[in-house]
Amino acid sequence: MLFLFSGLALFAQSIELTPIFGYTVAGKVDNYGRYLNVENSALYGGLLSVQFDDMMYVELSYERNDTKGNGFLRSADMAVEHYQVGMLREFGIGKIVPFTKVSLGTTRYAQKSGGDERLWLFSGGIGAGAKLFLSDRIGLRLFTNLMLPLEFDGAGFWCGVGTGGSGCSGGVSFNVPIVHWDMGAGLIIRLQD
User: Beta partners for 20?
Assistant: First the structure.
């Protein structure tokens, strides 16, 4: 994955590094008889954005918040980390550039006190925001994201033959046990134009 990303960076129109800081609202949910609670807390992380077409970026992102939680792991201090690969689309050119993004990756819940339990979940995200450029190389990024960890519920595959013909089908189901709403800002450092 990094090899592919570094190859894309060679032909990039621009590369942006963005350290971020913000706040995560996670909340509580009753999920199939299991009560989940992740406390709201500060988040930090970073983004590597590589422009591959006009107003289109591939983005690697890492976000972390240190919090308290119960439900997945027993009540304990925990870290929530989101590792994502996504696509960002800008809308406009100038000093203020709005954008939207989608991403896929994984979310890790790691217990930090009273044990060493970890839980990895497939996750996706959607987000929006704006880039405010102060110069050609420096800017501010304001953003909001919904991070959606997914629990696997089941899968099925079936085939049938009848008077109308034959066919096969399959399906996979997931549920979203808890939603993380991230809001924050970052300092954009543009390395290449």
Answer: 45, 186
